[in-house]
Amino acid sequence: MSAYLAISGHEDHDVRPSSANSHRSLRQRSSRGRKEVGVIGQASWLSSVINLVNTIIGAGVLAMPLALSRMGIILGIFVILWAGATAGFGLYLQTRCARYLERGSASFFALSQITYPNAAVIFDAAIAVKCFGVGVSYLIIIGDLMPGVVEGFSESAASVSFLVDRHFWVTGFMLIVIPLSFLRRLDSLKYTSVIALISISYLVILVVAHFIKGDTMQNRGPIRVARWDSAVATLSSFPVIVFAYTCHQNMFSILNEIGNNSHFRTTSVVVASIGLAASMYILVAITGYLSFGNSVLGNIVSMYSPSISSTIAKAAIVVMVMFSYPLQVHPCRASVDAVIKWRPIKRSESPGSSPSRLVSLLPGAKTGQQTRGDGMGETRFAAITTAIIVLSYIVAMTVSSLEKVLAYVGSTGSTSISFILPGLFYYKISSPDSPHHQRLMKEDDDEQEDTADDDENLLGGGLKGGLWRKKLLRRASLALAIYGGVVMVTCLVTNTLFVVATH
User: 323-343, pLDDT tens digit by residue?
Assistant: First the structure.
């Protein structure tokens, strides 16, 4: 349809100046005519980008120089761009899949109900475990870094036992993240996301500033430009780059909440978010690697000489992960709710047999239940959120490292929600035999018929081009799912060899 929009407004402005505008208004009327469910239409484009970028960029940005040292500059930059492109394509497929659902109801659960209904519980359980594990790792990072931050600001802090106790800091920061975790809308977290992005910006500026200043050259090792360290070393850093773009667990919430959900606006959110993240990754990777060469470590901030600026950098990491914790609770809560509500669907009750049944399958769709915008009852919302917070706190207080667990959770959960599920969902739902696809195509055809008298010749070419592009997109979605499977196997093998074997 985007191609037709471009065609309809091309050279006929002098003859029919209202052709493009009339088509655009028809699309808007069609969208308004669809039933709206859930939290919709209040978030701005900017807040959507801010929350998505904050979900993407985490502490993994500090490991980019190490990845470049193992892959070489040329290959490393290519892998960063490739990982961003494939992750962005997965996000784009999510925007396409959301068109098949009622406005404001898009979720992995809703899509699985009309594509693979009996596997929905597996998908949501994987997302819940993944988001829970990442959230716990954020609390562990806070507990590990804060004692050093306090000592960096005051050497006498070491004499006060609780100030260097990780349990004290985990508990203290939980008091900050608990109220944020009970917010229903991602849009409500835009201001904390801005603070997190400011912290990330400080880290980037610190790395670039040390590179420009050149105060690390005496400790710099050799530089690899076109040659990698080894195939084994390259594979060990590949998962770090791939998982650095994982944000797909929050994409449907952003699509539900954004005010203007047109194809152009949602696609621009994806492009802007992935582009900004990739730019930061490349900037930190190149400047950090050129600062230390092959001597660089996994956390580049730890390599700088003790100073107020490096201590502030550690504090910035704490702030970043603290405000990223609620962004993990949000999708975890939705997935846990979907797992609790899931029931096996018999063949005779398949959602594909009656598109109108979709709404009844969505969370919170039962009549008589007091629900809010996300379709979750007040009591259920509070209970699930409390359970996630309490369990994550207990794990963070009793476990000092989740490296081995997160290695496997990331290999399965991140690849599933980034590549496999978006690819499989779109490939299944966009099948010409799918009743949901036929219904969507009928809506598009009805809109095209209203403008056929004005643009008959141009419309014919637009339709042929549109059909060709839809077939290509469907094949590309299957290729993405297959690629995700290959990445999953590669990461599992890599983690088995490098994570488990070294412990």
Answer: 999 999 999 999 999 999 887
